[in-house]
C-alpha cells in the first residue's frame, strides 16, 4: 500500500489503534483495515519497589499513555504528512492481573500492585481450597483477600476493582468493562464466560468479607467477549489521549485485554490444541484446552482466550531481566574500549556465541530471579550465578546458562502439563524480544522444553498489534468466530519456521535443569542479603 493510500485511510478515520502496557514499555501501534502496522510510538518505564510492593505510579500510567500516542502521531506526521483526527476503533491491553482498587469518587486507594508481587500466598492458598480452583498469587482476588486478611484500612472504601487494562479503558471510555481473558486473571470464569457465580457466593460467605459494605460482584467490572462493543472514546478520553484536541471522540472501544490474550492473537493460538509462549520481563506458556485438567495444580492457572475458552497457563515471573543486566555490563565494557555497539548488535553477538558453548553450559548454573518465583517456591528474587572450580567458565557458556535460566522455570511448569496431565498441542508458537536473533533463542527454548517451537514472521508485531486486531474484529461485527477470522483474514500470508529439539542440546538442557533444581536451596538462602545492606 502506497503512502498516499495510507494517508487517505488515516484522514478518513479508517485506522485502528492498539496500545499495550508492557513491563518495560508502553507501545502504541496504528494499523490499516488489512492489519498492516503503519506507525508506532512508545514510552519506556520500569516498575519500582516501594514499601515492599512492586508498582508503577498512576501518574506514569497516564503520562505513558499520552506520550506513546504523541510519539505515534509524530510518526504519522513525518511519514504520511496528515494528522489523526479520528480512529475507527481502539483497543487497550496490559500486563494481566494485579490490583487497582478505587473508591466511589474514582480515587485510587493504594498504589497499583502488579503481577510481580508474591505477598499474597496466605490469601491465594485459602481461596484455592475454598473454590477448589487454583488462585495464583498475582490474581486480583488474591490481592483483595490478602488486604482483607491484613485488615488494610482502604478495603472498606472500595467501590471498583479492576486491572491495568481495565483502568485505562475506563479512563478513555467511561465504561467499567473488561475482556474475558483479562477478567480470568481477576477471578474464576465459568463456562458462560462470566465470573463464576458459585465462587462469588463462596467468597461473600467468608466471615472476614461479610464485615464490608460491598459484595464482590458489585465491585468487579462487566465482562465482555472478543467482538463485543465495550464502549466508545469519550470527550474526556479523547482529550486524555490527545491533549492537543485534534483527536475526535466516538471511536469504538474493544473489550480491554491482558497481554496473555493479545499474545494468543498475535500468534494465532486461539483454537483448541494450539499453544503459545511469550517471553519478556516475565514469560508464560498457554495451551487452549480440549478437556478439563484432571486436578487442581497450584502451578497451573486456568484462564481463557479472548472468547472465553479455557486455557492452561504457566506463568513465570522472571525471564529476561538478568540477561539485560549482563548485556548492560558488556555494553559498558565495549564503551570503555571505545566501541559503539547498538543493543541489537550486542544481543546478536552474545546469543550467537552460544553456538560455541558446551551443551550443558559448562557446569554453570544461573538464577535470573529479580523477584520471587512461585513455581519454585522462591519468595524473593536474588539474581545468582554459580559455578564449581571445574566449571568451564567462558562467555559462550555464560550466555547459554543465561538463556537456559530464562526458560528453566517454564520447563518445570510445562512438565506438569505434558507429563502429569498428558496435554499435547498441534503447534507451540513463541514470540518475544529474545527471538530477534534468528534461530538461537528458538533452538535453546526447544531444547529446554524438549518440544518443537515455531516462530511466525509477524512475531515481532507483538501485543499492541494483537490488541489492534481485536479492535478490528469488533468493527467487523464478529460475524465469524475469532479463530476463523484470524485464519481467513489476518494470517493468510504469514510464514512460520519450526525448530525441533536437537539430541545433544536437549540432553545438555536436562543436565543443566538437574543442577538448577539441585541448587535452588542456595537461591532461597541468598535472601539473607537485603537491599538496605
From TrEMBL:
<dbReference type="Pfam" id="PF02782">
    <property type="entry name" value="FGGY_C"/>
</dbReference>
<protein>
    <submittedName>
        <fullName>ATPase</fullName>
    </submittedName>
</protein>
<comment type="similarity">
    <text>Belongs to the FGGY kinase family.</text>
</comment>
<keyword id="KW-0808">Transferase</keyword>
<dbReference type="Pfam" id="PF00370">
    <property type="entry name" value="FGGY_N"/>
</dbReference>
<dbReference type="InterPro" id="IPR043129">
    <property type="entry name" value="ATPase_NBD"/>
</dbReference>
<feature type="domain" description="Carbohydrate kinase FGGY N-terminal">
    <location>
        <begin position="17"/>
        <end position="240"/>
    </location>
</feature>
<feature type="domain" description="Carbohydrate kinase FGGY C-terminal">
    <location>
        <begin position="276"/>
        <end position="473"/>
    </location>
</feature>
<dbReference type="InterPro" id="IPR018485">
    <property type="entry name" value="FGGY_C"/>
</dbReference>
<dbReference type="InterPro" id="IPR050406">
    <property type="entry name" value="FGGY_Carb_Kinase"/>
</dbReference>
<dbReference type="InterPro" id="IPR018484">
    <property type="entry name" value="FGGY_N"/>
</dbReference>
<keyword id="KW-0418">Kinase</keyword>
Amino acid at each position: 500500500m502506497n503512502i498516499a493510500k495510507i494517508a487517505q485511510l488515516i484522514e478518513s478515520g479508517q485506522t485502528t489503534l492498539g496500545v499495550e502496557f508492557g513491563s518495560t514499555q508502553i507501545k502504541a501501534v496504528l494499523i490499516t483495515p488489512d492489519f498492516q502496522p503503519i506507525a508506532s510510538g512508545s514510552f519506556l518505564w520500569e516498575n519500582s519497589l516501594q514499601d515492599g510492593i512492586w508498582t508503577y505510579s498512576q501518574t506514569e500510567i497516564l503520562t505513558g499513555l499520552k506520550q506513546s500516542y504523541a510519539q505515534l502521531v509524530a510518526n504519522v506526521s513525518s511519514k504520511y504528512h496528515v494528522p489523526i483526527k479520528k480512529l475507527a476503533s481502539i483497543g487497550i491491553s496490559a500486563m494481566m492481573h494485579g490490583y487497582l482498587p478505587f473508591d466511589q469518587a474514582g480515587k485510587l486507594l493504594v498504589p497499583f500492585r502488579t503481577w510481580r508481587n508474591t505477598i499474597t500466598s496466605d490469601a491465594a492458598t485459602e481461596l484455592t481450597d475454598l473454590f477448589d480452583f487454583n488462585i495464583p498469587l498475582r490474581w486480583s482476588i488474591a490481592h483483595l483477600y490478602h488486604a482483607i486478611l491484613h485488615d488494610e484500612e482502604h478495603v472498606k472504601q472500595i467501590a471498583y476493582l479492576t486491572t491495568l487494562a481495565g483502568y485505562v479503558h475506563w479512563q478513555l471510555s467511561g465504561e467499567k468493562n473488561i475482556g474475558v481473558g483479562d477478567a480470568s486473571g481477576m477471578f474464576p470464569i465459568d463456562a458462560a464466560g462470566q465470573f463464576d457465580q458459585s465462587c462469588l457466593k463462596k467468597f461473600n460467605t467468608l466471615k472476614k468479607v461479610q464485615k464490608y459494605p460491598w459484595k464482590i460482584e458489585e465491585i468487579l467490572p462487566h465482562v465482555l467477549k472478543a467482538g463485543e462493543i465495550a464502549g466508545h472514546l469519550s470527550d474526556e478520553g479523547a482529550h486524555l489521549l490527545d491533549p492537543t484536541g485534534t483527536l475526535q471522540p466516538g471511536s469504538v472501544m474493544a473489550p480491554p485485554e491482558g497481554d496473555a490474550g493479545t499474545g494468543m492473537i498475535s500468534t494465532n493460538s486461539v483454537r483448541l490444541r494450539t499453544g503459545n509462549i511469550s517471553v519478556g520481563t516475565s514469560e508464560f506458556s498457554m495451551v487452549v484446552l480440549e478437556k478439563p485438567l484432571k486436578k487442581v495444580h497450584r502451578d497451573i492457572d486456568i484462564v481463557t482466550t479472548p472468547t472465553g475458552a479455557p486455557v492452561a497457563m504457566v506463568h513465570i515471573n522472571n525471564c529476561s531481566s538478568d540477561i539485560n543486566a549482563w548485556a548492560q555490563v558488556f555494553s559498558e565494557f565495549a564503551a570503555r574500549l571505545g566501541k559503539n555497539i547498538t543493543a541489537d548488535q550486542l544481543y546478536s553477538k552474545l546469543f550467537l556465541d552460544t553456538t560455541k558453548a558446551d551443551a550443558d553450559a559448562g557446569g554453570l548454573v544461573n538464577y535470573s530471579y529479580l523477584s520471587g518465583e512461585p513455581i519454585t517456591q522462591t519468595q524473593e528474587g536474588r539474581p545468582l550465578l554459580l559455578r564449581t572450580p571445574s566449571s568451564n567458565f567462558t562467555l559462550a557458556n555464560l550466555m547459554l546458562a543465561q538463556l537456559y535460566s530464562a526458560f528453566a522455570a517454564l520447563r518445570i511448569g510445562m512438565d506438569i502439563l505434558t507429563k502429569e496431565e498428558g496435554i499435547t498441542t498441534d503447534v507451540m508458537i513463541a514470540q518475544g524480544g529474545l527471538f530477534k536473533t534468528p534461530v538461537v533463542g528458538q533452538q535453546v527454548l526447544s531444547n529446554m522444553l524438549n518440544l518443537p517451537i515455531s516462530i511466525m514472521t509477524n512475531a515481532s508485531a507483538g501485543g499492541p498489534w494483537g490488541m489492534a486486531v481485536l479492535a478490528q474484529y469488533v468493527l467487523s461485527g464478529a460475524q465469524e468466530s475469532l479463530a476463523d477470522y484470524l485464519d481467513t483474514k489476518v494470517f493468510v500470508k504469514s510464514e512460520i519456521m519450526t525448530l525441533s529439539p536437537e539430541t545433544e542440546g536437549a540432553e545438555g538442557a536436562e543436565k543443566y535443569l538437574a543442577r538448577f533444581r539441585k541448587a535452588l536451596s542456595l537461591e532461597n538462602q541468598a535472601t539473607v542479603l537485603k537491599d538496605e545492606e
